[in-house]
Write a structure and sequence with these properties.
The chain is an alpha+beta fold and 202 residues long. It has 2 domains: 3-93, no CATH class; 116-199, SH3 type barrels, CATH 2.30.30. 40% of the residues lie in helices and 19% in strands. The protein contains 5 helices and 10 strands; from the N terminus they run αααααββββββββββ. The strands form 3 sheets. The protein has a 5-stranded antiparallel beta sheet, with no helix packed on it. Strands 3-4-9 form a 3-stranded antiparallel beta sheet. Strands 7-8 form a two-stranded antiparallel sheet. Helix 2 runs parallel beside helix 4 (62-93).
Length: 202
């Protein structure tokens, strides 16, 4: 950490820390393509929320003022991720200003989804084998449920059946075990040929 930052006033430090925390939450899992400049300026945008809150609560104690500024910035970051990005895209599409949403890839767009629950996932391996989870809701209480889509294209999922190439569907009843827990299967991106995902409407 640059020592120059520590020489700033406590208000400036709170604003910068709050802005960066909000940025991290708002772009969690989808910031791999951001440049250093993107990170800096997006964090500064969120820090404006903290700065405004610090000014509004300047009569309060530094601890209360700083805490509320941090929490408000983080809340704005989460709201931006939950609704803001989608709303901005809709506003820009309506008058045909632009249909681009800055998503670096279709996989990244799928990763940022937090609105539509995944109900089924099937992965076709390069050797022709299908790995399936026909009902992801069965694993809603499991760790890392219902699946994990890695930034490099790798996948973690709970198998309910496996279908070898040209073979019959083979159920996997041992995926859930009361003694040993739920079994996750890791699929490296180098083995993936195709992914089918079903999502429920909200």
């Amino acid at each position: 950490m640059p020592t120059d930052i520590l020489a700033l006033s406590w208000k400036a430090q709170v604003a910068l820390a709050s802005g960066y925390a909000a940025y991290i939450l708002a772009y969690r899992g989808i910031r791999a393509h951001h440049s250093t400049q993107d990170t800096v300026f997006l964090a500064l945008v969120f820090s404006l929320v903290a700065s405004a809150q610090l000014w509004l609560t300047k009569a309060y104690s530094p601890i209360l003022s700083g805490a509320t500024a941090f929490l408000l910035s983080v809340a704005v970051g989460m709201l931006w991720r939950r609704r803001g990005m989608e709303l901005l895209s809709a506003i820009l599409r309506r008058p045909n200003t632009t249909w681009s949403d800055d998503t670096p890839s279709a996989w990244a767009r799928l990763q940022e989804n937090r609105r539509f629950p995944v109900s089924q996932i099937s992965v076709l391996l390069k050797d022709g084998t299908w790995l399936n989870c026909e009902e992801t809701s069965r694993f809603n209480d499991a760790p890392y449920a219902p699946c994990v889509l890695g930034t490099s294209g790798d996948i973690l999922m709970y198998l309910t059946s496996v279908t070898p190439k040209g073979g019959d569907d083979k159920p996997q009843p041992s995926t859930r075990d009361r003694t040993f827990g739920d079994r996750l299967t890791y699929i490296p991106s180098s083995e993936v040929a195709r992914v089918n995902i079903r999502m429920l409407r909200d």
